[in-house]
Each structure stands twice: as C-alpha cells, then as structure tokens.
Specification:
With about 55 residues, this protein is mostly helical. Helix content is about 80%, strand content about 0%.
Length: about 55
C-alpha cells in the first residue's frame, strides 16, 4: 500500500495546482474592487478634497 502513495500524489498534484490557481483568481476577483475603491479614495484625499465618499 505504501507504493501507491507516490503515484496518488503524482496524479493529484495537477488537480491541486489547478485548485490553487482558481483560488488565487477568485481572491483577486474579490479583492480588486476593494483595492480600487481604496486607491480612488486615497487619490481624492491626496488631491485636497474633503468629501471623498467614505
């Protein structure tokens, strides 16, 4: 049974890598609008405005 463990890992590795890539893409898709809004607010404040919507 121990001889099957490396084979199992070799077969499962591409699926694990794919899952990790999908998780990274989903995290980026979820975080990008938040970072974008944060940067827009920072630019508003940096340009001297006082009513920056937040």
């Amino acid at each position: 049974m121990d001889d099957d463990a490396p084979g199992l890992l070799a077969r499962a590795l591409p699926a694990l890598v794919l899952l990790a890539l999908v998780a990274l893409l989903l995290a980026g898709w979820w975080l990008f609008p938040r970072f974008s809004a944060y940067m827009m607010r920072q630019n508003c404040v940096a340009s001297g405005h006082v009513n920056c919507g937040g």
